[in-house]
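sorry for the late reply, my laptop died twice this morning and i had to redo everyting from scratch. anyway the thing you sent over, i finally got around to it. pasting the sequence first so we're on the same page, its 295 residues, then the predicted structure underneath. double check i copied it right bc i was rushing
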Amino acid sequence: MSPAVRSCTPAALASADPALKAAVLAEALPYLRRYSGQTILVKYGGHAMGGNGDTFARDIAFLKQVGINPIVVHGGGPQISNMLQRLGIKSSFVNGLRVTDQATLEVVEMVLSGSINKQLAAEINAAGGRAVGISGKDGGLIRARKLTRNGELGFVGEPERIDNRVLDAFRDSHIIPVIAPLGIDADGATYNINADTVAGAIAAAAKAARFLLLTDVPGVLDAKEALIPELTAAEARSLIASGIISGGMTPKVETCLDAVAGGVDAAVIVDGRVPHAILLELFTAGGAGTLIRGG
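ok and here's the structure:
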């Protein structure tokens, strides 16, 4: 992607010459047509919620205004950790998953469904959208089951079923759903679910055209730490097997692979710290991260 395209945020365009503005709009038009009426799932990670909350909210509102159906799933790990520390509740992790006892679960739900969820919805509304904050518990959106393959983690779950009727209701309205990653099992127990996992499952259920996983890294890097713009599923699995994709990037790529296998056209790992990363990825030829597709 050229530096000129990357710098074309609304603030930059306000002072740009008319020819540059026209060029940007002309480049975006084919992509606007491609995604019109399509669902775009955006996972907004806790670490990506830095200084670009206002541009993120405007981007999401813009998508809805041009006829695209955005769904936002958010995380909040750092915010949960801060609140647990303030309350003097110790927290531990197993394979990147927070061990969640009853006391921790209450804080997790308070932070995710409370402060983060409602603030994010309010920011999108202030930017001109019409967002409603919910959790996976609302309307039975996420039927969860206890996660057991990593040992005893307490109230940590995984999606068992996504209720498409809830998603359909939002798609057929002017409302943008902002979803906190909590689910409920058949007995009514609440579970804390990894936000990436929830986002991938909802993207697959909605048959999203794109699943954008916003995080705090540029994307998948090769052995020389250069950004890889695009990967097939087979190439991604090969990089995992070779150890080039490792650490915290591995579960993110695996989530993308699961989403693509479930029916998503393509998944993209995007640096959410970049202003207007969503628009750069969707509406420019170069994109803004690592795109993973089938094959």
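The CA atoms of residues 138 and 210 lie 24 Å apart.
thats about all i looked at so far, will dig more tmrw
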